[in-house]
Protein 1
Amino acid sequence: MSDVQQQIDQMVKGHRVMLFMKGTAQFPMCGFSGRAIQVLKACGADDLATFNVLEDEGVRQGIKDYANWPTIPQLYVNGEFVGGSDIMMEMYQSGELQQLLAQG
């Protein structure tokens, strides 16, 4: 496992709710990342950790390989890949995301 992959793995496993995004929770730098933050806040995710991939090109590319998922944002809960903003939105609308986040 490369250094970048280990760094990503530590972030994913070190936080119950981890979002890799463009920008920050306070200042999202793309619409998809902004929507991801809004959905997570609507679900009451108060233990959310974020990582701004625009500040680290290695992580920006590495996260795509880590989950074998081509786009950002990417959400991880309890060390498991959940999906990007479209999947998050679908899960939110069906109530699945709220249930997933409610599990401690």
Protein 2
Amino acid sequence: MNDRASELRATIGAAEWQQRVDLAACYRLVAMFGWDDLIFTHISARVPGPEHHFLINPYGMMFCEITASSLVKVDLQGRKVLDGPQDINPAGFTIHSAVHAAREDANCVLHLHSVNGIAVSAQEEGMLPLSQHSIFVLSSLAYHDYEGVALDDDEKPRLVRDLDDRRFLMLRNHGLLTVGRSVAEAFVAMYFFETACMIQVRAMAGGQRLRRIDASIIDGAQAQWESVTRGAGGGLAWPALLRKVERADPGYRT
């Protein structure tokens, strides 16, 4: 473990360090799956405890470089809580801070500019009921219209209103967002979201008439989601995903 990690672990609790490790793993996984957009987009996680503090990536680092100790702790205004060499992109925290402030269950907010996600977000009908992956998304999906680069706090109330209590948010002409009670939940949700978008793009490119899943099946998908993902937290998938990151580069834990 490097000096920075050792010093940090000595000043924070075990719960925060575990959240840092999970969040660093999530950044690495996004890079491994090819969903990252250079240094842009963000994944934020609430620091366990009574304070309204959050962890987010240092601005300028690729997702494949993120480690537990390099994550920056900020308050709801995006101000650094701990001194350190890394800064964040305040504009990048605009969307995340709005969701964290409005939703007590938003312990992790994951936002992507994936190619498939943006492609579907630019389609007038948005997500279509074409696959098993899509029914889980459609059972808890909201949309937010594009208002330009998310720099202004004025957009926050409209974003929160549109998201409401949903797990998935499609940002029109922009990208995808998931809300999780844990880092694991947000990542597994994004896997289904991005995969459903990829399936839709490929199905539409096939040129044949598309078969849509009946709405009655979508109505029961929420309960099925909880069962399939072991409580929507990726109970089976997340440990396996951590092993995948560990095999590639255990340095994310430092």
